[in-house]
Amino acid sequence: MYVNGTGLRAIEPQMEVSHNIIIHWIRKAAKLLRDTPEYSEIPEVAQVYDLETFVRKKLLSGCGRQ
Question: For 34, 37, 55, 65, which has the most beta carbons within 10 A of its beta carbon?
Answer without folding.
Answer: 55
